[in-house]
Each structure stands twice: as C-alpha cells, then as structure tokens.
Design brief:
5-stranded mixed beta sheet; Immunoglobulin-like; 8-stranded mixed beta sheet; 3 helices; mainly beta; 321 residues
Length: 321
C-alpha cells in the first residue's frame, strides 16, 4: 500500500498511482485504462465512516487543471501503468488523521490502495516546529563548528544558546562574526535567592541567582565534604564548572580558580546545604551536567555515595544595560 502525507484541509490534491497488470508475472504496468473502463471504480474511507465513491471523470490532458475525480493515463509508452487521479477536497478535510483511497475493478488490474496520513503541518514548509522561519541567510552565515565549540558531551551550551538567539532575531545574521559580537549583558538587578528544585537525584537551579540548595537524607563524614558540577564524569576536578568544599569554599569556577567566599558547604544532621553567590552562578553556562557529593575522613578514606544530574537553566527575566 502506497503511503503519503498531506496537510489537513488541503484542496485540489492531485496524486499519481501505478496500476500493475495481474495477467503477467513481470510486474509490468497495465495500460489503456480510462475513466469509463468497464467496472473501474474508486472509493475512499475515513476512520469510523462508510466508504464513499469517487465518480471518475475525464481529463483532456495530463496537464489539465485539477478536476474532482479526474482520471487519465500519463504515457502508455514511456510510463506504462502510471495514472493521474484528482482527489475531491472532502478526502483531506480536517477531523481525522488518515484516509484510504481504493481503485479496483478493471480486467487484469491489481487493485491500488493509497493510504494518506493527514498532518497538522506542511512537510514542504520552511517553517520549523517552533515556528521560526529558517532562511538561507540564517543558515549559511553561521560560523562553522570548530574545536572550541565542543565538549566530550557535544556542543557547548553557551554556543547553542547563541545560535538560537541568532535564529530568533528579527533580522538575519549578516556575517559569521555577528554570532560572537552581540553586546555583552550586565546584570543590573538584585538576584533573588530561591530554593532549588531537588527531585530524587536531580537538582535544578537558575543561573544568576543566589543558590541555597538543601540536599537531605545524606550520610557523610563531616571531616571534609566536597561538591562538584562537571560537564562529564571524566573531567578533572580543576576543570569543574563548580567545585566547593567545607574547608575552603569555592575552589573552581568554569575550570579556573574560584573566589573562596563565593561558595560554601554546611552539613547538619543529614542535610547538606550548598550556597553559591549570584556573582558566581551568573558565569555558569546553561545545560544539563553531572554532580557528585564526596566526603573524606580524617584518615583519608574517600566515599562518593551521592550524585546525579544538575540542570542549570538560563535566567528567564533579566534587566540588562
């Protein structure tokens, strides 16, 4: 059964079909059919409805404008077995997601079944799923992907964000350098301290806010506790996006030495509280990363019993200058 996709409510739809000759075993097409060939009939059915006949009518030429039920052979010499059929508009009307067209009845004819998937969008449209028109200028003027864009896990989150900002702009990017020359942003509002979302082993918090995250039901040695966020498990501690310990405070930020007072860990009962200042979190790229919580005893025994996924979301509302 041939299967095609057509947007719902499409009108004046013309389809081309192949009719096989049942009297031979070569798979050859059957020629000579017309709208008035004896016993040749065409029906369609939509889900949960009765079959509806499509009355076949003549077309003067294969190039004639659409006519409901129009049926004509394309070229019996060069394309034997190929026919044009014009579908009535009711076949593609809204309300269902599929329809089947069935042509049958002529002598020596293998019945033709045409299954149509009715979609909510045009597969040939240049508008993407979120409604952004993808123009040739937008695509060709983006810079080539280079090594400094990449991490072990894929493209850097800040590079992806920059591309998305470019494609969503009201004007096209005019040169490859434009992606990197957007004006820098400065936070001019006071960051609001909010409680992070902790669900199971997943933590989510917003870049540019003070972080005050409580992770509960932990059993840790209070001698030394370390918390780290990394792009991948293989990254060295010095390459961490964020690393804090109970002795020093903020050790690393984006793979560089951090300002100790910008972060702290405190452990009380079974709850570890992770605090990071907004001035530090504002420098972190949005994305989905891994985190780990480790404790080290006075004797030097290391235990990392807790970890999971840490999602840094972009700040949604931000005053800029």
């Amino acid at each position: 059964m041939a299967k095609i996709a057509i947007k719902k409510a499409s009108t004046d739809v013309t389809q081309y079909i192949f009719v096989q000759d049942s009297s031979v075993t070569t798979g050859a097409g059957l020629t000579g059919l017309t709208f008035e060939t004896a016993s040749l009939v065409c029906y369609y059915v939509r889900p949960l409805a009765a079959a509806v006949e499509i009355p076949l009518v003549t077309l003067a030429l294969v190039t004639t404008e659409h006519t409901n039920g129009g049926f004509i052979e394309i070229d019996s010499t060069n394309m034997p077995g190929h026919y044009r059929i014009d579908l009535p508009d009711g076949i593609c009307a809204t309300g269902v997601d599929s329809v089947v067209v069935h042509l049958k009845g002529a002598a020596d004819m293998v019945p033709v079944n045409l299954e149509i998937q009715l979609t909510n969008f045009d597969l040939n449209s240049v508008t993407n799923a979120v409604g952004t028109v993808v123009t040739a200028t937008n695509l060709t003027n983006l810079p080539a992907i280079t090594a400094d864009w990449l991490t072990a896990a894929g493209i850097k989150a800040d590079a992806v964000t920059e591309i998305q900002s470019g494609l969503a702009a009201t004007t096209d990017l005019t040169s490859s350098s434009d992606v990197w020359t957007y004006g820098s942003r400065t936070l001019t509002q006071s960051a609001t301290s909010i409680t992070a979302a902790v669900s199971g082993s997943s933590i989510t918090d917003i870049r540019g806010n003070d972080w005050d995250i409580d992770v509960t039901s932990l059993t840790l040695d209070s001698n030394l506790i370390q918390f780290t966020i990394k792009r991948s498990y293989e990254d060295a501690d010095a390459a961490a996006l964020l690393m804090i310990d109970t002795d020093t405070g903020l050790l690393y930020l984006n793979g560089a030495a951090g300002t100790a007072g910008d972060g702290s860990l405190s452990y009380a009962g079974t709850t570890l509280t992770i605090v990071t200042k907004a001035s530090a979190t504002a420098q972190l790229p949005p994305g989905t990363y891994v985190y780990g919580i480790q404790s080290i005893t006075a004797a030097g025994a290391v235990a990392e019993s807790y970890g999971g996924t840490f999602v840094i979301t972009a700040d949604r509302v931000r005053a800029t200058t």
